[in-house]
Amino acid sequence: MKNESSSLQVKDIGEQGLLAILQRFCPQEIIGDDAAVLVTTPEQSWVVTTDVLVDNVHFSHVTTSPEDAGWRAVAANLSDLAAMGATPLGITVGLGLPGDISVNWVERLYQGMTECLQKYNTPIVGGDIVRSPVTTLSITAFGQAYPHQIIRRSAAKVGDAIAITGVHGASRAGLELLLNPEIGQNLKDTDKAALITAHQRPQPRLDVLPILWNIFNSQSQIPNLKSKIAVAGMDSSDGLADAVLQICRASNVGAILEAKHIPLPPAFTNWLTPEQAINYALYGGEDFELVLCLPPDVASALVAQIGQDAAIIGTITSETKVLLHHENTEIPDQTLNLNQGFQHF
Amino acid sequence: MKNESSSLQVKDIGEQGLLAILQRFCPQEIIGDDAAVLVTTPEQSWVVTTDVLVDNVHFSHVTTSPEDAGWRAVAANLSDLAAMGATPLGITVGLGLPGDISVNWVERLYQGMTECLQKYNTPIVGGDIVRSPVTTLSITAFGQAYPHQIIRRSAAKVGDAIAITGVHGASRAGLELLLNPEIGQNLKDTDKAALITAHQRPQPRLDVLPILWNIFNSQSQIPNLKSKIAVAGMDSSDGLADAVLQICRASNVGAILEAKHIPLPPAFTNWLTPEQAINYALYGGEDFELVLCLPPDVASALVAQIGQDAAIIGTITSETKVLLHHENTEIPDQTLNLNQGFQHF
Q1: Domain holding B116: CATH number?
Q2: Domain check: are A41 and A16 in the same one?
Q3: What's the rounded mean pLDDT across residues B99-123?
Q4: Which of A275, A324, B8, B238 is an S-S bond match for B242, by CB 3.0 to 4.6 Å?
Q5: The domain that contains A184 carries what CATH number?
Q6: How far is A258 from chain B (nearest CA, A)?
Q7: 3-class SS at B290?
Q8: Residue ranges at the known binding site of A
Q9: With contact defined as beta carbons under 8 Å apart, do B182 and B316 qualify?
Q10: In a shared domain, residues B141 and B155
Q11: Residues B258 and B315 in one domain
């Protein structure tokens, strides 16, 4: 009820502006990560994350079947748990539905949610179904983590290696192919299908967590390692550049990324210009990989054990900006910024 | 994707029909109460509940200020926790907003949520804000309970007394007064204000829980009482009749209610006909009191200690129907049914 905001509309201040205003209603210490942490006992923390998806804003009947909409919604929430170092325990589903939507559509949505959930042994534990003029899907996911293993955006340290768990840009390329099939005429069918699957069925990287904890445990010379783990990270749901920028902002550090170390889908090589390819990778979003800042030896071991397209793509620096370096080229370093990312309003 | 449902629309089968279909995607043991229980340790259970509220369906600019919409949304969720015997730990807020909604409206919504939350020391721990053509508020609340103290709909036993924690019908009367102010012209201003407040600022009955557990502990002659507590109950958010019917259905029992023992707001006496008054109390909804089935001695002690308008209104019976008995009148017993309650589609 501050006077200066009485005539403002939400679209005037955007998502970040509104968040800044509303955060004063929330405890400061639990804001700012992919999910909220509620520590209940010294041995166990509960981690909670929530997402709202609206028809024609977050999914579209053109590019998304109800099964895929369900899968993607669940995957996004489980990815937020993975990004906190948490193992999922269950989700609740809040559904707003127009009366004239087909029952079959709703069943197929639940089918897609369940397919993703079953892969990670996670049940739907509750929900609410209400009438709404627009189809709306609100998912809240709960997980548990050991308090000393929680991954936070604010824990990056100068000298950390920046490791990513897979290729970036594939989801965005898949979306473009769905929206404009003609752009894919020079692509092999298998490549096209792989990119579209990356968009429709993203995989939350919960599989990375046991590998990570195992490396920490095996590398430790110290009997009680618990206080020594401080992994920084988040997922790349809003894009790889966004993830690195958010971590750097929260940790008050900077980063230098090596463009040629960022793994791209092989199909990009003869299909996109190098500029398009790196733009999809940095700003495409929805790849749901983990971006982790780790001591270099831990990062090397992690990348080796994940295999596939995991890679070390850069280093945390003390200068509070994020530079993209192009090795062996004439291209000068570029400073990345958040304005190229996705804004909700 | 069953063939028989492919042409059906959600409005054809209603909320209960859709729930019946979707429940096959959820584990059976955690469905059917006000909230879901996730047992994590033998000593502690996590309880989770979620509600979705849609503009013009669940709140209206005519009857509800943004502060009241926020308060009511939080109160409904905290009431679901109370109905499970759980103490709140935090909520997440998912918000869908049109771009042209005023920032002030959103701030006032959060102000109302916070006012209710602060009364119960409960923080907003996370959320999501997205663009949507219709204002939508999804709240998920988390609480904790001792596993042996969880209140379930399915635990009512023949001979239990049915205790309620306060008057019913006030919220519905308040709503009618807001929609049709002229019907209140014979009411005192203070009575009118009290009924409207009952609608705008319902109080989740978390205060009842410590009283209840204290009675159980003090009455026990057995050193380890833990296994002896099996309270049945739910809240009366969808109406008192609905609560009794749901408990009886889940417990496979029946009930007889004494009409004259159901506490009504004093203002009803010279304002409504007896039929209107009992209808508001039974079917009005949104009073957010607790309806508990307890051994008669525990129920008596509880009602005495809560005071105010708590009352024992009936008894659990073996015949699986719910009868309303009118003592000392010519009116025959009435069989209550759910069809008089509120359906979302």
Answers
A1: 3.30.1330.10
A2: no
A3: 95
A4: B238
A5: 3.90.650.10
A6: 32
A7: strand
A8: 34, 49-51, 58, 80, 110, 127-128, 153, 235, 237-238, 286, 342
A9: no
A10: no
A11: yes
